[in-house]
Amino acid sequence: MLSIQRASMSDVVAMHNLQMRAFEEEGRRCGTREIQPLQETTDSIAEHVNSHIALVAKENGVLIGCVRGVHDDRVWTIRALVVEPSKHGQGIGSALLQALESEIGSEARIELTTNTIMNGNVAFYERHGYHIVKRSVPIAGIEIAHLFKLTARDV
């Protein structure tokens, strides 16, 4: 049975390990490990758990997904929505995204970035109401889509 709850400090190492596994394929496709999710430390994740919204999805007590929301002024940024690679396509990412949006409430704007090299990432967020604002190329060969979603208060 899937449960989604606030992350605790006891989840940080498992969140980091999952993030490393989940972004390994992206790093391989990009030809570099110099992408932000693969460079993030457990200390950074712990800071998010302490200071922002961090949610985990667990199945039979085992962490299989996580997502973080970071608030700055009237904007929320979604960070590291990750699902155990063997669990893709089972609705876990959608459940985490919806749970995070519920936690965020009626803020003005939610933003995120995703690497377009990963097939389906942009389409996933578009299905959930996000729209591309721009694309950027931070490193040769890596195209990042910048997306946003306005909440009900702004519609």
Structure notes:
It is a single chain. This protein is an alpha+beta fold and 155 residues long. The chain has one domain (2-154): Aminopeptidase (3-Layer(aba) Sandwich). Helices cover 34% and strands 37% of the residues. It has five helices and seven strands; from the N terminus they run βαααβββαβαββ. The protein has helices at 12-30, 36-39, 42-51, 92-104, 121-127, and strands at residues 2-6, 53-59, 62-72, 75-83, 109-115, 131-139, 142-150. The protein has a seven-stranded mixed β-sheet, with helices on both faces. Strand 4 (75-83), helix 4 and strand 5 (109-115) form a beta-alpha-beta unit. Helix 1 crosses helix 3. The chain starts with a strand and ends in a 5-residue tail after the last strand. The model has no long low-confidence stretch (mean pLDDT 89).
User: Within the CATH hierarchy, at the fold level, what is the topology?
Assistant: Aminopeptidase
Shape: globular
Helix/sheet category: alpha+beta
- What is the terminal separation in angstroms? 35 Å
Overall pLDDT score: 89
Biggest sheet, open or closed, and with what strands and sense? 7 strands, mixed
How much beta, percentage-wise?
Answer: 35-45%
Unreliable stretches: none
Tell me which CATH architecture applies here.
3-Layer(aba) Sandwich
Domain module tally:
1
What is the CATH homologous superfamily assignment? Gcn5-related N-acetyltransferase (GNAT)
Radius of gyration: 15 Å
Number of strands: 7
The helix-strand sequence is EHHHEEEHEHEE
The CATH class assignment is: Alpha Beta
Strand ordering within the main sheet? 1-2-3-4-5-7-6
| Number of helices in the DSSP assignment | 5
Approximately how much helix is present in the residues?
Answer: 25-40%
